[in-house]
């Protein structure tokens, strides 16, 4: 069960409309390393994750990523809401307008629709955790590139916050991977002792 | 109290609890963190009540106290709030 909370994880403000930036930001909504991908990736891995701590971690990070999806959606919504169709066209959002008007859509910055192929699930805890760390690092890098693309201090502040959260998630997944590897080593050593 | 500051304070407490939750997932034996989590939980309940008194329910499905007049559909959604 999930329960919706009518608040954002952080306040989101934009200082001016910026349609091009909205187009770029869409990749963190429905692109390969975006928040939809992260949320679904982690929540989906939980069912077969053998470790208790990591099951909790996947649940909690997956839930936070859903919250981040709403932060990105809010940024895009606020950047686009007062635009005219012609302004959208001039900013490279003409194709988006033709297909979706101002509605958000799960697609990357080029308009390529989201696909489940973005999500990795191998069922092997070491493989999945290593993949999650890579996913967080890719999301962190994407936020950095997006920060480099904006001159709006309000947008930049939100993106820096999200970049920081990806770093924390990556650290937590690194701890999880380290813990699993240690446990594997210990049980292997135990088995070798038993075999003697 | 001003709309923005009540909400901001609520968001601060909520964020601290998210961060601590992730930390405790991997460090469940850290009693100092558990204590901090419990203290923040008390603050969260109080701040949520203060915010809901001003602005109506924050959570759905009965997890917020319900005013006599139904307001869930009337209060602004997170993307509509101007900070």
From TrEMBL, chain A:
Keyword Calcium listed: yes
Keywords noted in UniProt: Calcium, Manganese, Metal-binding
GO molecular function terms listed in the Swiss-Prot or TrEMBL record: metal ion binding
Binding residues annotated for Mn(2+), in chain numbering: 35, 65, 68, 136, 169
Cofactor comment: Binds 1 Ca(2+) ion per subunit.
Cleavable signal peptide: none
Essential cofactor(s): Ca(2+); Mn(2+)
InterPro entries: Ferritin-like, Ferritin-like_SF, Mn_catalase, Mn_catalase_dom
Keyword Manganese: yes
Binding annotation for Ca(2+): 60
Family per similarity comment: Belongs to the manganese catalase family.
Protein's recorded name: Manganese catalase family protein
Species annotation: Brevibacillus nitrificans
UniProtKB/TrEMBL annotation, chain B:
Lineage, top ranks: Bacteria, Bacillati, Bacillota, Bacilli, Bacillales
Pfam family, one: CotJB
Protein name: Spore coat protein JB
Domain of life: Bacteria
InterPro entries found in the cross-reference section: CotJB_dom, Spore_coat_assembly_CotJB
Residue ranges of every copy of the Protein CotJB domain listed in the record: 6-80
Keywords: Capsid protein, Virion
């Amino acid at each position: 069960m999930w329960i919706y909370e009518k608040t954002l994880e952080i306040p989101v403000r934009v200082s001016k409309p910026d349609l091009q930036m909205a187009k770029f930001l869409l990749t963190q909504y429905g692109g390969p390393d975006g928040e939809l991908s992260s949320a679904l990736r982690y929540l989906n891995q939980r069912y077969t994750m053998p470790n208790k701590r990591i099951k909790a971690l996947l649940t909690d990070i997956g839930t936070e990523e859903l919250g981040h999806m709403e932060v990105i959606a809010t940024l895009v919504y606020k950047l686009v809401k007062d635009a005219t169709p012609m302004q959208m066209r001039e900013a490279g959002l003409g194709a988006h307008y033709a297909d979706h008007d101002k509605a958000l859509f799960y697609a990357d910055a080029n308009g390529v629709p989201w696909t489940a192929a973005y999500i990795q699930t191998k069922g092997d805890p070491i493989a999945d955790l290593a993949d999650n760390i890579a996913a967080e690092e890719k999301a962190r890098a994407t936020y950095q590139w997006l920060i480099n693309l904006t001159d709006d201090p309000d947008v930049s502040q939100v993106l820096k916050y999200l970049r920081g959260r990806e770093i924390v998630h990556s650290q937590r997944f690194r701890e999880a991977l380290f813990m699993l590897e240690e446990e594997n080593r210990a049980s292997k050593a135990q088995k070798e002792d038993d075999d003697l | 109290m001003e709309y923005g500051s009540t909400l901001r304070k609520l968001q601060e407490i909520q964020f601290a609890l998210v961060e601590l939750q992730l930390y405790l997932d991997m460090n469940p034996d850290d009693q100092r963190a558990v204590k901090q989590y419990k203290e923040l939980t008390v603050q969260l309940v109080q701040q949520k009540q203060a915010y809901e008194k001003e602005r109506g329910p924050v959570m759905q499905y009965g997890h917020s106290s319900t005013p006599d007049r139904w307001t869930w559909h009337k209060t602004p959604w997170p993307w509509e709030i101007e900070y």
